[in-house]
Amino acid sequence: MLPSYISGQFTTNTPSVTPEYCNGDGKVTIGITNATLGSTFDYLLQRLSGSGTFNDRNGSLGVINQTALIVTQSNLPAGKYTIRIRENINGNLTTKNVSFTIANNYTALQFNNIFSYACFGNITVNVTQRIPVTYEFKKNTNGVVVVSAQSSNSFTDLAEGNYNVALTDQRGNTKVVGATITDTNTDLYFNFSSQDLNGFNYLYDCSHILHKIDLRRLGSTLTVPNYKYPINIIYEINMQDGSPTGIAYIRNYILNSSADNGKIVQNIPYIYGKSFTVKKTLTDTFNNLSTINAKSHI
What is the mean pLDDT of residues 95-116? Predict the structure, then answer.
């Protein structure tokens, strides 16, 4: 004899739904009342619409020893669903279908995008014989002193241009060596887009951002020249958690060559609903680091 189908034996309450905030973390809870003691329950969960792939779920709640119970399903991506709940009482089946929707409440990270660029010419004068007592840095066009006589053989924070380095020994003899700073332009910038990996709205997981460091030259999309490397990148991330100062994170990266440009990083923190400020600092460490190897004749 085929089992008969009966209805109205148990009741399903209005589902309690938690929307998706991150990577399919939606949830539904359905209360069941008026269940028959000793009966068994099973369910079949199906998604009717939504992006991505979702496989049907089915399972059993076992033998019921109470008249009220709960069906909970977690890790649900956004979409429209139906769940078939079925009670089996000695072969008599009662079926109820419950429909619900998991909303997509993911909100892209809010942040201010600020960047600064540190790039200055540096020169080190290496003399192979009879080390001078002083080094003086002048413009070669008009003789204006840029850096007064000093004992150090290193000059930093120099603007682009042609220079002369005057090397003076203990006897007062002076030798002049030419030096050129070729490129101190602050011409690198962070390519930024809020719509792709160049922004901060791609999740690596529910607590980290997946982000691509993409450096460009002003007025051009050409590859950053090799002499600009290595480039140090610092992200200063401040999460506004309601405290006076927020929570600070520092992330350091080094791009050693053009092959590293486009580097993917996964350790930028993320907390749903929190506002972030991301300050990005780019330092071209060896830009215009010129070394003059001069054999002294003084």
Answer: 72
